[in-house]
Amino acid sequence: MSNLRWLKSWEFALLVALMVELAVLGMINPAFLNVQNLLYSTSDFVHVIIAAVGLTLIIMTGGIDISGVSLMGLASIVLGLSFVAGAPIWLAVGVALAVGLLAGAFNGSVVANTDVNPLVITLAMLFLYSGVATGLPTLLDMLGFKAYGAGGFEAYQYEGINGLPKSFTWFGTGRIGWLPMPLVVTLVLTLIAGWLMGHTRFGRFLQLIGVNAEAARHTGVPLKRTLITVYALNGLAAAVAGLVLTAYFTSARSDLGAEALLNIITAVVLGGSSIYGGEGSVLGTFLAGLVLGYLRQGLLALGITSDVVPVIVGALLIGSVAGRIGLAALQRSRANRAAYETERQAVAANGE
Predict the structure, then answer these.
(1) Residue 57: which of 231, 257, 284 has the closest Cα?
(2) Parallel, antiparallel, or unpaired: how do β-strands 175-176 and 179-180 relate?
């Protein structure tokens, strides 16, 4: 019986929803169910899944970080500017990833050492990192740096940086067999995050902090170090998402990923993570990201304008939160009734 427990899991429900969604869209437009089309179309939205997987780890602690979308653009423009400054492409990739990691660690340090709500902190960081990404070319010019073989960096402020090597853009446009490289990167990161969540002390620490941070501290959980680490990992995931987008579009831009925030949060919540912390699923987030991605593409294919799609996604977010709250209330009600019935039977037995 325990072997069938997964049939009642939220992840299985999401898998069924994904299959139903694809079937319905396939009936409307048979070309939609072409396997190669389904695989290659994931390249349009896997950056959402990558960022959502990183955010899932933070949601487990009861926190949140909405600055990831600005870190995507920051990582992208740092990569591009480093490359045109003369750095080898893989050094530029390392610098961009380091920027995401350090920015995330800074977020975690502020969250861990203050009593300010993480939403407020990361909202401020959202604007800060976005401003830095936009103004970085001008700042480099002011400091006297020069682009390799060209004049100043300011020419790249609002235009994409093209001419990136094929060895890098292959990660956005290449494939292994039928699997596009963006999806391969996403699968690898999802597996790593799932392993961290379910098979390490670090994952256990995240859950304990989400359930009760003070109790976790008293049981020996290194609270501040864990928070800084998980926010740093989220920043790294956001940077990876930004670089995947950069490779896919073969152009580095400071605004890449700017529109993805609603989809990222929806994927995490729809994936089964509790906004109160202590509960989350990397697999659920991955499946929810696929559901959202294919839903968006299906709606656009049906002629629904891109202005309406966010309304539908927002409604789905509200519905998923309301559904989770309602389900939790129903479970508490059943538990209370079961406890009352047990107590009533015990009293009746004693009376006899």
Answers:
(1) 231
(2) antiparallel
Q: Is 304 exposed, middle or buried (0-12, 13-18, 19+ CB in 10 A)?
A: middle
> How far is residue 11's CA from residue 1's CA, in Å, rounded to a whole number?
18
What's the chain's length in residues?
Answer: 352
Closest by CA to 301, choosing from 40, 30, 19, is 30
The Cα 110–Cα 195 span in angstroms is 27
80, 164 contact by CB (below 8 A): yes
DSSP state of 222: -
Q: pLDDT tens digits for 59-80?
A: 999 999 999 999 999 999 999 9
| Both tokens assigned to 118 | 């993480």
Nearest-angstrom CA–CA distance, 280 and 274: 6
**Residues 102 and 235 sit within 8 Å (Cβ to Cβ):** yes
Identify which of 272, 264, 280 has the alpha carbon closest to the alpha carbon of residue 203: 280
Q: Give the amino acid at 325.
A: I
Q: What is the pLDDT of residue 352?
A: 55
Is residue 162 within 8 A of residue 250, CB to CB? The reply is: yes
How deeply is 306 buried, as exposed, middle or buried, from its count of CB atoms within 10 A (0-12, 13-18, 19+)? exposed
Residues in contact with 168: Cβ distance below 8 Å, sequence separation at least 6, in sequence order: 89, 90, 93, 247
pLDDT for the residue 1: 44
CATH class of residue range 2-304: mainly alpha
- Domain residue spans in the chain? 2-304, 305-352
